[in-house]
Amino acid sequence: MDIKNDLESLRGLAARESQPAPQVSTCPPIWPSLIAQTEPGAALIEKNGDGRVLRGLAERMRARMERGLANYGMPLRAHNGREALADCQEEVLDALAYAEQARQEGRADHALVNELFALAYKLEKMRMEAADK
Q1: Which residues, other chains included, contact 108 with Cβ-Cβ below 8 Å and sequence gap of 6+?
Q2: pTM of the model
Q3: Could you count the other beta carbons within 10 Å of the beta carbon of residue 48?
Q4: Which residues contact residue 1 at a Cβ distance below 8 angstroms, ignoring those fewer than 6 apart?
Q5: In contact, 92 and 85? CB cutoff 8 Å
C-alpha cells in the first residue's frame, strides 16, 4: 500500500467534489419537519412504535440542528447552492466506515453494514444517473 499516493488520490477526489458553503434560501428549514415525524401521532411512530427510541432520536436531531446553526449560521434548507445527494453520500460513506468499525469491535452486526452499503450504492447510482442526463 502506498499511503502517499492514496492521500494524493483522496485530495484530488476532494478537490473535484468540493462544494460551496451553503447559501441563504427561503425554503423552510429541514430539521423541524424531520423532528416532527418522531412526535406522537406521526406516521413514523405508528410504524415503529418505540417512543423512547424516537424521543432519543429527536434529541439527537435537535443537537444536529443546533450544531449546524452554530457552524453555518443558518438552518439547513433546500435550494442552498449545494448538491444534497453528494452531501448525503459523503455522510453515508462515513456512517458505513463507522458501522464496519463497530462490527469489527463486536458492537454491530453485518446487517447494519449491509444496509448502509446498499444505501451508499443507491446514492452512487442516483448520482451517476443524474450526471448522465
Answers
A1: 99, 102
A2: 0.77
A3: 13
A4: none
A5: no
pLDDT on residue 37: 87
Alpha carbons 90 and 124: distance in angstroms, whole number = 10
Distance from C-alpha of 101 to C-alpha of 95, rounded to nearest angstrom: 10
Q: Report the distance separating Cα 113 and Cα 50, nearest Å.
A: 23
Cell 466506515 sits on residue: 97
8, HSE (Cβ side, Cα atoms, 13 Å): 4
Domain coordinates of the chain in residue numbers?
26-81, 82-133
Integer Cα distance of 121 and 124 in angstroms: 5
pLDDT at 31: 97
Number of neighbouring beta carbons within 10 Å of residue 87 = 14
Q: What is the pLDDT of residue 63?
A: 98
> Are residues 103 and 113 in contact, defined by beta-carbon separation less than 8 angstroms?
yes
Along the chain (133 residues), what's the average pLDDT of each consecutive run of 10 residues? 52 62 95 89 67 87 96 95 93 96 96 96 93 88
Torsion of CA 96, 99, 100, 103, to 10 degrees: -160
